[in-house]
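Exam revision sheet. Question 4 asks you to relate a sequence to its structure. Input first:
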Amino acid sequence: MSERSPAPGGLGLVETLVNTLDLETGADSLDTEEGRARLGLTEGDVPAARELRESLRATLLAHAGHPPHRPVTPLGELLAAAPLVVTVDPADGSAALAPTGEGSLTARVAAAVAQALVAGTWSRFKACEAADCHWAYYDRSPAGRGRWCSMQVCGARAKMRRYRAKES
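Answer key, structure tokens:
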């Protein structure tokens, strides 16, 4: 739904996961082979991916100052089970957290969150406040107070609703 640029770094993976569900239409790309392939998932991985997606969405709503959209498993509980290792680049000595082995989706998300924390980008990663959207987006506004994934769609709808409510 968003015309915004993709989230920076590893947050692109998180954005892709959260945005697999279109709340307005109910379409879930995890129901398709192509949608699962984009995230490296099998059909058996889908229930855990959906649980992770909704926990991420609740966290991104919190970043935007909104309550969870529904009861979810806390994100910290899900990420605590992620197998990560510290890697050190022998060429420049830089260190990073990385998923072990092939890396489950949860481990890849945990590594992306850790990278975003270090980069200072995690708190600007939000979910649209529109109840029929909650699309993930990276807030690039100067003050970091963006509210909608798209000013042209969700923002315009919200402003029109407020205008009509005043006219009534």
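Marking note for examiners. The chain has a mean pLDDT of 88.
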